[in-house]
Amino acid sequence: MDLSAGVWESLRRVRERSPLVHNITNYVVMNNTANALLAVGASPAMVHAREEVADFAAISQALVVNIGTLSSHWVEGMHLAIQSARRSQVPWVLDPVGAGATRYRTTTAAELARQAPAVIRGNASEVLAVAGEAEATRGVDSTQSSEDSLEAARRLASSLGTVVAVTGRTDFITDGSRVVAVENGHPLMPRVTGMGCTASALVGAFLAVEPDAVLAAAQALTVLGIAGELAAEHSKGPGSLQLHLLDALYMLDEVTVRARARVR
Amino acid sequence: MDLSAGVWESLRRVRERSPLVHNITNYVVMNNTANALLAVGASPAMVHAREEVADFAAISQALVVNIGTLSSHWVEGMHLAIQSARRSQVPWVLDPVGAGATRYRTTTAAELARQAPAVIRGNASEVLAVAGEAEATRGVDSTQSSEDSLEAARRLASSLGTVVAVTGRTDFITDGSRVVAVENGHPLMPRVTGMGCTASALVGAFLAVEPDAVLAAAQALTVLGIAGELAAEHSKGPGSLQLHLLDALYMLDEVTVRARARVR
Amino acid sequence: MDLSAGVWESLRRVRERSPLVHNITNYVVMNNTANALLAVGASPAMVHAREEVADFAAISQALVVNIGTLSSHWVEGMHLAIQSARRSQVPWVLDPVGAGATRYRTTTAAELARQAPAVIRGNASEVLAVAGEAEATRGVDSTQSSEDSLEAARRLASSLGTVVAVTGRTDFITDGSRVVAVENGHPLMPRVTGMGCTASALVGAFLAVEPDAVLAAAQALTVLGIAGELAAEHSKGPGSLQLHLLDALYMLDEVTVRARARVR
């Protein structure tokens, strides 16, 4: 099925509507992910205090929860935000960064995963850890390929009634029955910190304009992958890649998106 | 009145004296604002713990308090730092990020605003919220133009005895009676996260060398606006803008500042 | 003695083994230091919560503790991580950012320094403060030259049985008896925030592959200095320097390292 038309249509809508995307994310990537969201036309906000997190989630068009640098106060804020988002029917994305690396991280990720996220976006090791099928994560970088975890991703998606997006050389997005694969991207991308976190943030922006969560996640990952390819053409290393990626996200046009999208 | 001579004079003094600027700011922009302060020649420090924040404020030449990612421990640190700054006659700047978006944020901003900041720097929605004249903020991006809030800014400045700087397409700086307008800047600037926070940080650096807070704020905003214009000439998107902005702040010379300054 | 062969050999090993480097560092530099570690081929992780910090330190190949934006919860996490690292014989690096600026910072740095770090990396003012020989730090930028503090560094290294690396125009690395000097680097580097923090992070990565801590620290500082020199050749200011530095760290080859290394 040709899904590339939808990629452009959703990107166009993000730019037009500028959805407010509420992020509770890690310290390492706050700047990048805010800039990536601005570059695609969304309106990012980073808000985590328990005093205001529920109020803020309720006025947002999407919520992104990322456990990269979690601590107990922040996890409390995450739960409050998620409850509020669910009450207000705001879709939310879980990024279980480093699940599998420590018991605290795995347990927290698993608890959050049961709170009806629209999408869980992780690398293969993280998805296996959330699925309870491995504890093999080494730090925050995956030790598994995305193919290896596809069956675990399908089972996880089915059992939780959510969409799981496993990113890697090929990205797979599944709700347990449907599987969409995205072949865009570039090998230099994982050499920039927080590229996965940026992916999750963009999934949030696309969920705000595309109610089918499989499509929203696939579209966001396609956009990021295309921007990464374009950026890599002008980059000598990870420093320039990060800069050109933001420029590419900002400049993407319909012709480029349709010509480059490799999503099926 | 030609205010452009003062812009260069103050920038020259910042470079010469390298004032220590104490920032209690948000996680998203700490890196950018530290780099912008270094680029203009100031010496930035980010210090927030209640155990040391008073000691640090007392040895600084300016304090910048930004509520972008506030939480209760940090607000406590803000109050301690402000009390210390006031005792030591260190001027301080308030950036009420996202005031109006949640009750917690609006209340905190209003409380801080009553602690005699030398300058309050915000976008139109934030200034209206601090003035108690609106609760219209949508996330952290303004929904109002700076012109719309000028009268509210004047009233706020008069009632608090402070200077209010409302930034937008035109920046307005007022102490309630005087109004200075800055026309520098570029439309791509708001597509980089934390540009307003950078503005507030630079206001801090200029307050350290220029006792007239209306002039200090106007000068800092002029410098940032000029640097943004120069950066935009070499930028294809927000990624390159952020890089070139730091280079431009670092390289600004007297001829360029005098030729480009649009402050009156 | 020609130490340049070892520089390349260790860099090659970092790329080959991709050591997991656990960082408890400050908010300002998390992104930069993660990217610098990725650029040299290491696998960085930023983990600070007391619930998991001991587990994580135990599976890492090196730990880096940086007090740049310290607070009581984080200091607790630092101590737990250090105890775990010591039990598992994971080498750890202390970066006493801003020691001397406040009593809290000086005391905390001194306490951590007594927990058997493999390397303490600081600027001259910070090293003097940890050594208890001065309280002259002004913010986080050094007011002393590295030469001035060399004798204090030797005494500190001897008394603690550790290696002390004082960075500045010339970097000195000493275990109290041996002294290695690194002459690489560029004057534009201190105009980018967190360059010292990046140095400490790279020392962590090199400790993971080189057991002699004097050599590991000297090699890491040489690599950073060479990358800074290469980056400065293409940079107009601190914005471009930061980008080109990451690219240079990523691209460094044996011929360049051997030709440029000035370590003796």
Provide an overview of this structure.
3 copies of one chain form a homotrimer. By secondary structure, chain A is of the alpha/beta class. Chain A has one domain: Ribokinase (UDP-N-acetylmuramoyl-L-alanine:D-glutamate ligase). Helices cover 50% and strands 14% of the residues of chain A. The first copy, chain A, is built from 11 helices and 8 strands. Chain A has helices spanning 4-17, 30-40, 53-59, 72-87, 103-113, 124-130, 150-160, 195-207, 213-233, 238-251, 254-260, and strands at 20-24, 43-46, 62-66, 92-95, 119-123, 163-167, 171-174, 179-182. In chain A, strand 4, helix 5 (103-113) and strand 5 form a beta-alpha-beta unit. Chain A is globular, with a radius of gyration of 16 Å. The model of chain A has no long low-confidence stretch (mean pLDDT 95). Chains in contact: A-B, A-C, B-C. The interface between B and C is medium-sized, with 34 and 33 residues.
Assembly state:
homotrimer
Average pLDDT metric of chain A: 95
Per DSSP E runs of 2 or more residues, the count of β-strands of chain A stands at: 8
Shape of chain A: globular
- Looking at the overall shape, the CATH architecture of chain A is 3-Layer(aba) Sandwich
Q: Compute the number of structural domains of chain A.
A: 1
Terminal-residue CA separation of chain A: 6 Å
- At the fold tier of CATH, the topology name of chain A is UDP-N-acetylmuramoyl-L-alanine:D-glutamate ligase
Q: Give the CATH H-level superfamily of chain A.
A: Ribokinase
Number of helices of chain A: 11
Largest interface (CB within 8 Å) is between: B-C, 34 and 33 residues
Biggest pleated-sheet summary of chain A: 8 strands, mixed
Uncertain runs of chain A: none
Spatial ordering of strands, largest sheet of chain A: 2-1-3-4-5-6-7-8
Broad structural category of chain A: alpha/beta
Which series of helices and strands of chain A comes N to C?
A: HEHEHEHEHEHHEEEHHHH
Q: What is the CATH level 1 assignment of chain A?
A: Alpha Beta
